[in-house]
Specification:
- The complex is a heterodimer of chains A (314) and B (304).
- By secondary structure, chain A is mainly alpha-helical.
- Chain A has 13 helices and two strands, in the order αααββαααααααααα.
- In chain A, α4 packs across α8 and α5 runs antiparallel to α8.
- The longest helix of chain A has 43 residues.
- Chain A starts with a helix and ends in a 12-residue tail after the last helix.
- Chain B is mainly alpha-helical and 304 residues long.
- Helices cover 78% and strands 0% of the residues of chain B.
- In chain B, α3 packs across α10 and α7 packs across α8.
- Classes of the chains: A mainly alpha (314), B mainly alpha (304).
- The interface between A and B is large, with 96 and 101 residues.
Chain lengths: 314, 304
C-alpha cells in the first residue's frame, strides 16, 4: 500500500487505474493464501477422513450396495399413536431419532420462547444478570449434566428419596433409563441453544412498533400476535434448526439416560462399528448425514435462515 | 414495516371507549406478566438446579450415591487425587485443549480475515465447509477420524486428538473473529501502512488489538470444545491418550461412585470461572469498541 501511493505520483491516470487493479488482484491472492492453511488442515483431518469413511459403505467388505440391504429387509414394528406400524428395524431407529429430535425441538421452543420474551422485555443489564442462569448450564460439560440427571432420577436419586420421604410413594418410581429421562436431559441441554438465538432476535425488535400498535388501539394479545410474533420468527427458525440438527446427532445423553428402547442413530452407528461391521456403520452414517444436511438445506434455502451456526454460542 | 398502511382516525366514541378499557387492559397485562415471570423462574430453576445438585453429593460421606448425604467428607476428592488415571487424564485434557485453542485460533483468525475481506470465487462454499463440523453429527466425524488414524498410526496419540479437536473448534473461532472483523474500519490499516508500517506490523499493532475480544472468545470456545469433547476421544484415545471426558465416561458406564461427583463439581466451578471470563471479555469488548480506535492510534503513535 505504501508502495502503491508512492507509485501513483507521476504516472498517467490510465496507468494508475491498471496498476491499482493489478494490486487489487494481488491483494485477493493474499487472502487466498491466508485461507489456505485452515482449508488444507480441514481437508486433511476432517474432510478426507469423513469422505473416506462414508465410501466404505459401498465397498466394505465387498463392493456393492449390500450394506444398504438391511435397511430394507429387517422387519420390526413401531408403536405410534396407539397403532402398530410394521417398520424396518433400522429405519425404526431413524424414526425414534426423528421423533426425539422433534419433541425436544418443540418443547424447547415452548419453554424457551417465554423465557427469551421475558428477558428481552427488561433492561439489558438485568437481562444479562438473568442470562447467567441460562449460561451456567450452557458452559457446563454435557457429561456432567447427564450425570446430574442420573443423580436426580436414579432409583435412590433425589426425586425418589423426596417422594418417599414425603410419603407420596411407597416404592421408588422408575425414572432413569426411560424416554422421559432422555427428554428431560436433552431439553436441559438444548434449551440454551433455543433461548440464545431467540433472545438475540427479540432484543433487536424495535419496541416503538409495539407501542405504536398499542397507541393505535390494538389489545396486548393482538400486539403480540400481529407484531411481535412475526418479527421474532427468524429467531424461532434459527433456534429450531439449531436444536433439531444437534438433537439428531445426540449420543451421550440417550446412552446414559435412555432405556433399551431409546436407541438413537448415533448409538446404533457406534454399536455397529464396535461390532466391526464397518461397511454397515458407514452406510448408516451416510443416511444420517444426508438427513442432517437435507434438513439444514431445507431450513436455510426454503426458510432463509442465515448463519444460524455462526451465532450459536455467543 | 407498517408505516405505509393507512391509519383510520378514531371517532370520539371509539377513543372514549378505548380510554375506558385502558385500566382493565393494564391490570390484565401485569397479571399476565406475573404468570410469565413465575414460568420463567421455573424454567431457570430447571436449567440451574441439576448443575448444583452434584456438589452436595461430592461432599458426602456415604459409600454410594445417597441423598441427602448422611454426613460430610472430602473422601471423593481424595479419591480423585489418589486413584490412578484421574489426574493424568485431567492434565492431558488441559494440554490437548490448550494446543487445540492455539492451533484453531491461528488457523481460524487467518481464515476469518480472508473470508470477511476477500472477494474470490467459491468463498461461500469455503465458508460452509469451514463451518460444517458443527452440522455434521459428532459420531460421523469420530469414526471417520478413527479409520484414518488407524491407517496413519495416530490412535492413542495426543497429537491425533489435537488435530481432530482443532477441526471441531475452527468453526467457533471463525464465527467469533468474523463477527468482530465485520465492524472493523479498514481505513485504520491503510493509515498505518501509509505511515510506513508493513503488513505484519499493521496486523500486530492495529488489527489484532481491535479484534482481540473476538479472538479471545474464539480461543475460549476452542478450549471448551476440546476440553468437553467425548465422541472423538471415545474412538481415538485408545489406552495411551485417555482424556478426562473419556475417563468420566468409562467410570459412568462401570460403577457410579461419587468420585465423578467430585470431578463434576470441580468442572462446574471451572465452567463458572470460564463463564465469568467470557462475560468480562464481552463487556470489555463493548466498552472498548468505541474507545479502541482512539486508544490504539495513540499507542501506535507513542511507540513509533
Amino acid at each position: 500500500m505504501a508502495a502503491l501511493t508512492h507509485d501513483l505520483q507521476g504516472a498517467d491516470r490510465e496507468g494508475q487505474v491498471a496498476r491499482f487493479q493489478h494490486l487489487r488482484r494481488r491483494e485477493q491472492w493474499r487472502y487466498v493464501l491466508l485461507l489456505l492453511p485452515a482449508v488444507v488442515f480441514l481437508i486433511a483431518f476432517y474432510g478426507y477422513p469423513v469422505a473416506a469413511m462414508l465410501t466404505r459403505a459401498f465397498y466394505d467388505p465387498v463392493p456393492g450396495l449390500q450394506n444398504f440391504e438391511p435397511l430394507v429387509t429387517a422387519r420390526s414394528t413401531v408403536e405410534f399413536l396407539g397403532l402398530s406400524i410394521p417398520m424396518n428395524a433400522y429405519i425404526r431407529v431413524f424414526w425414534i431419532t426423528l421423533q426425539i429430535a422433534a419433541v425436544v425441538t418443540i418443547v424447547s421452543l415452548l419453554l424457551g420462547y417465554p423465557v427469551a420474551y421475558a428477558l428481552s422485555s427488561v433492561s439489558a443489564s438485568r437481562a444479562n444478570l438473568l442470562m447467567i442462569f441460562v449460561l451456567i448450564p450452557f458452559w457446563t460439560s454435557i457429561l456432567v449434566r447427564s450425570y446430574a440427571w442420573m443423580v436426580l432420577l436414579g432409583k435412590e436419586g433425589i426425586i425418589n428419596e423426596a417422594l418417599l420421604a414425603a410419603g407420596l410413594r411407597t416404592e421408588p418410581l422408575v425414572l432413569l433409563n426411560t424416554r422421559l429421562a432422555v427428554y428431560l436431559g436433552m431439553i436441559h441441554i438444548m434449551l440454551p441453544f433455543m433461548i440464545l438465538p431467540l433472545y438475540a432476535v427479540m432484543r433487536g425488535i424495535d419496541r416503538n412498533l409495539l407501542r405504536a400498535a398499542g397507541n393505535l388501539g390494538a389489545p396486548p394479545s393482538a400486539v403480540f400476535r400481529r407484531i411481535f410474533l412475526p418479527l421474532s420468527l427468524p429467531g424461532v427458525a434459527a433456534g429450531c434448526l439449531l436444536v433439531f440438527i444437534l438433537s439428531l446427532g445426540f449420543y451421550i445423553t440417550p446412552a446414559l439416560l435412555g432405556g433399551q428402547k431409546d436407541v438413537m442413530v448415533s448409538m446404533l452407528i457406534q454399536q455397529q462399528i464396535s461390532l466391526l461391521k464397518w461397511g454397515f456403520g458407514a452406510a448408516l452414517a451416510l443416511v444420517l448425514l444426508i438427513l442432517a444436511l437435507g434438513i439444514y438445506a431445507l431450513f436455510t434455502r426454503v426458510l432463509g435462515v442465515e448463519r444460524v451456526f455462526g451465532s450459536a454460542r455467543t | 414495516m407498517t408505516a405505509t398502511s393507512p391509519t383510520r382516525p378514531l371517532s370520539p366514541a371509539q377513543a372514549a371507549s378505548r380510554a375506558r378499557t385502558r385500566p382493565r387492559v393494564r391490570a390484565s397485562v401485569s397479571a399476565g406478566s406475573v404468570i410469565l415471570w413465575i414460568f420463567v423462574g421455573i424454567i431457570l430453576f430447571y436449567l440451574v438446579f441439576p448443575v448444583f445438585v452434584v456438589a452436595p453429593v461430592s461432599f458426602s460421606s456415604a459409600k454410594y450415591l445417597q441423598f441427602p448425604p448422611p454426613g460430610w467428607s472430602l473422601q471423593w476428592y481424595q479419591n480423585y487425587f489418589d486413584r490412578p488415571g484421574w489426574v493424568p487424564a485431567t492434565l492431558l485434557s488441559i494440554r490437548v485443549a490448550i494446543a487445540t485453542a492455539i492451533l484453531a485460533t491461528a488457523l481460524g483468525t487467518a481464515a476469518s480475515l480472508a473470508l470477511v475481506r476477500g472477494r474470490f470465487p467459491g468463498k461461500g462454499a469455503v465458508n460452509s465447509f469451514i463451518v460444517s463440523p458443527l452440522v455434521v453429527p459428532g459420531i460421523i466425524v469420530a469414526i471417520g477420524v478413527y479409520f484414518f488414524y488407524a491407517q496413519v498410526r495416530l490412535v492413542g496419540n495426543p497429537v491425533g486428538l489435537i488435530l481432530a479437536h482443532t477441526c471441531l473448534a475452527l468453526p467457533f473461532v471463525v464465527t467469533n473473529v468474523s463477527a468482530t472483523l465485520q465492524g472493523f474500519d479498514e481505513r485504520l490499516e491503510y493509515a498505518a501502512m501509509n505511515l510506513g508500517a508493513n503488513r505484519w506490523q499493521t496486523f500486530r499493532r492495529v488489527t489484532l488489538p481491535i479484534i482481540r475480544p473476538g479472538v479471545f472468545a474464539g480461543a475460549l470456545f476452542a478450549f471448551i470444545t476440546s476440553f468437553d469433547e467425548l465422541l472423538v476421544a471415545l474412538f481415538v484415545s485408545g489406552s495411551g491418550a485417555v482424556t478426562l471426558p473419556r475417563k468420566m465416561w468409562d467410570s459412568l458406564r462401570q460403577e457410579i461412585d461419587p468420585t465423578i461427583a467430585a470431578v463434576s463439581t470441580i468442572l462446574i466451578a471451572f465452567s463458572i470461572v470460564v463463564l465469568l471470563t467470557a462475560e468480562l471479555l464481552r463487556q470489555r469488548a463493548e466498552r472498548t469498541r468505541a474507545a479502541a480506535f482512539v486508544a490504539e492510534e495513540d499507542e501506535l503513535g507513542a511507540r513509533e
